[in-house]
Amino acid sequence: MARSQIRHLKEKEGIATLFFLVVCIALALEFSPSVGTSNLASAVTHAVAPWIFGPFQVLLLYLPPWLGALIVPILIIAGLLGLPWLVDYIGTKWGQVIFSTLYGFVLLLLLWFMVKELWWI
Fold this sequence. Notes:
By secondary structure, the chain is mainly α. The protein has helices at residues 5-30, 54-62, 65-81, 83-90, 92-119. 73% of the residues lie in helices and 0% in strands.
């Protein structure tokens, strides 16, 4: 029995996604960020990321580091990666509703953090 092209494409995308995640994790573990080590550099008390990383800083502020920096982002990424396969099981209409809801939620969060950052300038 011949495999459908869509199923074959989804399998390829899944393999490529896993490969990309493994490469990203390997690079992140290999090249650690260096924070000013010269004598002329001022002491760093904490790092502040650009506004796009605001939600992750809030997670790190209110949650334990292992949960806010590792578990929650992995669950978010896994949920977004699983959306194409979720549509096969629950139907196209509900898949569009879930995707639209998540997309709107992410946009609202990004806008909120952007406005919050610009409000204090």
